[in-house]
Amino acid sequence: MSRTMLIAGNWKMNGLTADGEALARAVAAGSTGVGCDLLVCPPSVQIGSVGQVLSGTPLALGAQDCHAAEGGAHTGDISAEMLADMGCGFVIVGHSERRADHGETDAAVQAKALAAYRAGLIAVVCVGETEAERDAGQADAVVAGQIGGSLPNDATAANTVIAYEPVWAIGTGRTPTAEDVQAIHSHIRATVSASHGAEMANKVRLLYGGSVKPGNAAELMALADVDGALVGGASLVAEDFLSIAANCS
Ligand code: PGA
Fold it and tell me: Can you list the alpha helix ranges (DSSP code H) found in 12-103?
């Protein structure tokens, strides 16, 4: 099954307007000849300015979160429709930092993914175990539970990307071994196959995230069930992001 790889940059809460524009310009300038899909997810207040820089380039624009509702009295929140209106094609939902910092449950993440579909966005649904859960041998069960609770019944390979991001690997410079990454990605695909059918499971893109760097990307991106990366820290340096993307095939 051939799946087009996706390298996504999650800029998190970093940089001011000029930084975001410069980063987007540098990524776009260096992206010629990259053999996969590229996505950048700036802070929400920079979606407009980064979108202008990326206009006419093949790079996709995404957001880091959305509210489940279409509109209304939700101070400080942003709807999926607003993101689509600003030119976004993707939205990350259920990132572990939002699950931890904002108490987002699987049900809340599922509602956000449904909001993404409603607005015509592709949802990047994030799952991943903590270090304590992995040490207790629960990684597979935790991730299967998150998939079960966060992935809407309406999820398809066209409207959804799944990102496996072990919490203990995010921003730490540590990653699971290649064998462990392949094993859990294969487990995620089997879980999706059981809930959404084999066709969806074979087609859906599974990204690995958590300390993906130029130095480890080749090994991780070569794994059979890894279809790209969700990159945090290294996506803030255009050269590093592009060097990770150079491992796409
Ligand atoms: P990191 O972040 O690449 O800095 O580990 C990944 C993520 O949180 O998406």
Answer: 17-29, 47-54, 80-85, 96-101
CA of 72 to the centre of ligand 1 (A): 32
- DSSP H or E segment with residue 90: strand 90-93
Q: Which of 50-54, 183-187, 223-227, 245-249 has the lowest mean pLDDT?
A: 245-249
Rounded CA separation 52/205 (Å):
27
10 CA: nearest ligand 1 atom = 9
CA dist 90 → 10, 123, 124, 130 (Å): 12, 6, 7, 25
Tally of residues, the chain: 249
* Closest among 165, 148, 80, 86 to 114, alpha carbons compared: 80
Place of tokens 């957001």: 63
Q: Note the pLDDT tens digit of each residue in 1-19.
A: 589 999 999 999 999 999 9
Closest to 164 in 3D by CA, of 234, 156, 180, 4 = 180
Residue 209 alpha carbon, nearest atom of ligand 1: 6
The pair of structure tokens assigned to 151 is 């992935």
**Is 131 part of the annotated catalytic residue set?**
no
CB 244 within 8 A of CB 211: no
From 221, 206, 215, select the one nearest 233 (Cα to Cα).
215
pTM: 0.98
- Residue 146 CA to residue 128 CA, distance in Å, equals 8
